[in-house]
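Sample 3 of the quickstart, ligand aspartic acid:
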Amino acid sequence: MKPRIAIFFTGGTISMSINPTMGGAAPALSGEEIVARVEGLRNIADFDILNFARLPGPHVTPAIMLELAQAVNAELLKPHVDGVVITHGTDTLEETAYFLDLVLQSEKPVVFVGAMRNSSELSWDGPANLMAAVRVAASTEARELGVVVAMSEKIIAANEVTKTHTESVDTFQSRDFGALGLIDKDRVLIARRPTEREHIATDHLESRVETLKMVSGGDGKFVDFAIAQGTRGIVLEGFGRGNIPPAYVPAVERAAQIGIPIVLTSRCPRGRVLDTYAYDGAGKTLTNRGVILGGVLPSHKVRIKLMLALGAGYDLAQIRQSFED
Ligand code: ASP
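Result:
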C-alpha cells in the first residue's frame, strides 16, 4: 500500500508562470496542474490535493497562517493520512513553517516546499522539489522531526531555516546548525534531530506586535509611535550581540514600564544575542530594564512566536521563559 499524503497548495513561484499582460510572474497553476507536471509522483504516494490559496509569499499574513495550521491539523488527525506537504512562496515560507512548527503537535511529517524558478522558465525547480518533499512526507525516517523544509535536496528544520539568497535555488539554509538531512534520489537520509523545539497551544494570535530594525544614529520615535498605536509586543532587531543606539533607550524603558514585552534579536545573520556588553544601549542595560533575549531566532520568527505566545495568553514571565530557557 502506498502512503497517503495531503498536499496543500498555497501559491508562490512553484505555482507561477509569466503573465504577459502583467509583465512578470504571477500565481497561475492549480494543485492538480502542478501534480500533473511531476512525472512519477503518483508512483510514490496517493494524494489528497487541497487548493488552499493561490498567494504570493508576501500576501500571506499571520491570520492566514493560523487558518492553514488549523486545516493542516485536521488532515494530520485523519488516521489514513501519513504526512502533509505544503507548497508556499519562498519569501515568507520560513515564517509560515515556523508558525506551524509552534502550533502543531503530530509525529507525522509536515514538509514545506517551494520553487525559485517559475513554470515558464527552463529550469523550473518546482517538480523536482515537490517530488523530494513528497518523499520526505512519505518516509518513516522523517517522523517526529516537527515541521521541515525540503528544497534543493536538503531537509531543514522550520525553527532554523532562513532564505539566504534572492534568486539562487539553494537559497534555504540553517546557517547556525546545518541541514537535518538529505534527499538523495529515492532515499531520505536523516543525520540529526532539530535544535530545541517548542509547542504553543493556541487558537489565537495577537497581531499587534511590531518589529523595529536598529540603524546607526536611530532613536526611539517608532517605539513611542508603537506604544501610541496600542502595540502589545515589540521586537527589536539590534546590532551584533544584542545592542541598540542609546537614543532608543528612554522609549524602550517607557514601553517596558507599561508592561509591553520587548524581545531583542540581532541584525547579524548568525549567532545568539546575549547581554555581554554594559555600555549605554548595550544588552545589559536592556535586560536590566526587562528586555527579553530572543536567542538565535531572527526578528521575523521572534515576531511570530511573540504573536502566538500573546495569543495563548502568556504573561511576561511565561514569555521570558519561552524565549530564554
Ligand atoms: N516572490 C515569490 C513568493 O514568495 C518567491 C517564491 O515563491 O519563490 O511568492
